[in-house]
Amino acid sequence: MNDLEAFGVEVGKGNYGEESFYGLVLTYTLLFDQVADYLDAYGLTPAKMNVLMVIKHQGGEQGLSQREIGKWLLVTASNMTRLLDKLEREGLITRGGMAGDKRVKLIRVTAKASHLLDRAWPGYMKTIICAMNVLSPADQKILSAMLQRLVQALKAP
Amino acid sequence: MNDLEAFGVEVGKGNYGEESFYGLVLTYTLLFDQVADYLDAYGLTPAKMNVLMVIKHQGGEQGLSQREIGKWLLVTASNMTRLLDKLEREGLITRGGMAGDKRVKLIRVTAKASHLLDRAWPGYMKTIICAMNVLSPADQKILSAMLQRLVQALKAP
DNA sequence: ATATAATGATTGATAAGTCAACTATTTTAT
DNA sequence: ATAAAATAGTTGACTTATCAATCATTATAT
Prior knowledge:
- The structure is a homodimer.
- Helix content of chain A is about 65%, strand content about 10%.
- By secondary structure, chain A is mainly alpha-helical.
- Chain A has a 3-stranded antiparallel β-sheet.
- The structure holds a DNA duplex.
């Protein structure tokens, strides 16, 4: 018996939309767990890692507002507040004010976070790349293109 | 600027493993939210829907133990208990004993749940299929095959 | 100019999931 | 036959995420 058939999906009957969907759910869940396991040794979670990476790569010197970070990551505003609360407590980010708009808080990664990312990043990438290497580079390219098309369409409406 | 570049992934440089991974995360998140929105009108969540579908399709007359349901769905035992607590309170499942092993509880869907699934299922599938129809049937077939290969590999170790 | 609306961020209440420890039962090993 | 290990399920403490409501600040409309 196949994983997908458990959901009532009739495999091999041309229902590739359903198959793809459940394949996506299973792949995501398994991959996410594997990445979370790796990051645990660094006191990080996938969410924290992504936030730090976005701030580091998008924020530069001046930093990034919480809204902007949230937009990149599909993270809600309130969740962003609490995520940053934790990162701030751990000394990994700072919240500074923005000249000209007192509502905005500009987030920057600290030196401590930068070093942590330097240590955690290679293994993090290796974890992901090893997992994906089940597929040939050509297939990965095809997969990536398909997923980008799906993302574009899903974000549109 | 591209979504993936936000994470520091250099798009177009051959890093298709990373691209695929973040594509997977974004696709899953967007798709999951859309499905959750649809199910909300029926008082269901994706987790509840999946559990009910598995019991209905795998359990048949005699029902299914909680462990077995959990195995199909990658849901931990304690989470399964709480999920079923809710479904039981809502009158959607029953927990019966198993002859021969008093530890096991056999879960069955009620008539109420069966009717609910009959009503919710078509739109649920339509939501999924419409989203996936951004890709041609041929592409969906390829995507599905790739994801199944990933799932197999990720479950192995 | 001033009232109204919109925006960025935070908070309280709540939902949902996880881990570790626990109970009850069954299996296995000696 | 009995002690030890394994299994099914539950529970408590904790973490994470979400929604709706709120506060402070800025933008817009008349």
